[in-house]
Amino acid sequence: MASMSVGNATYAGLDDLPQVVPLFVLPGAILLPRSHMPLNVFEPRYTAMVDSALRTDRMIGIVQPQFDTSDEELAGRPQLCSVGCMGRITGFQESGDGRYLITLSGVSRFTIRGELEERSPFRRGHVDASSFSSDLKVGVGEDDVDRDQLLFTLKEYLSVNDLEADWESINSASTEVLVNALCMMSPYGPKEKQALLETKSLKVRADMLVALAEVELARGNGSAGGTLQ
User: Is there a contact between 199 and 212 (Cβ–Cβ < 8 Å)?
Assistant: First the structure.
């Protein structure tokens, strides 16, 4: 299996991945391998997390809270979904007012096996990436994806919702990058996002994304105006 490079790091196999990662809890957001997530980090517990990650392996795990979590519970230690995705900090900027502007680049999904019990401002989880070992191999399953159907559905969705897209970038993107980026930026709720994250193959993820868009098209729902790029 070819090595996966993310920033200045190389991940040749599961042994190169950490077994403990800090957990950044984000409702309604997912990270996928070889995709990029910009984050505006301002909560003290998460700025401390970034400081710690920069001192060590630069890895942070993105995970959603359970779907019935209240805003009050979210401010504490809510129950978490069992599957998340670890990303490496590949971009970092200080704002000058205490915030960090970072970019996380997705490396591999993981299952949370437990959490460290410690006095720390942020949470850390014992994670197991063995169920997602194919995440470390670029382009797995691309040949099985109906890219034409995906692009057709995307064009229909954009047209109905009066959205624009950078078609030059879309057409030049690999199928894996395209599917994962569309999943991350899709307007669906936490349950749908988590289902997209947990899919076993790129084809299933793409098929689910198309099915969700077709449901929205059938309902005639959607937001008006904007840009998808």
Answer: no
First to last CA, the chain: 31
Per DSSP, the residues of 106-136 read EEEEEEEEEE-----SSEEEEEE-GGGGGGG
pTM: 0.91
User: How does DSSP assign 54-78, residue by residue?
Assistant: HHTT-EEEEEPBPTT--HHHHTS--
Distance CA 15, CA 21 (A): 14
What's the confidence (pLDDT) of residue 225? 36
pLDDT of residue 221: 54
| Residue 61 to residue 77: CA distance in whole angstroms | 15
* Best CA proximity match to 210, nearest among 178, 168, 165, 167: 178
Q: What is the pLDDT of residues 166-203, one digit of tens each?
A: 999 999 999 999 999 999 999 999 999 999 999 999 99
- Number of neighbours of residue 40 by Cβ within 10 angstroms: 10
Torsion angle, alpha carbons of 153, 155, 159, 160, to 10: 10
Show the tokens assigned to 167: 């078609």
CA triple 179-229-133, angle to 5 deg: 30
Contact 47, 101 (CB under 8 A): no
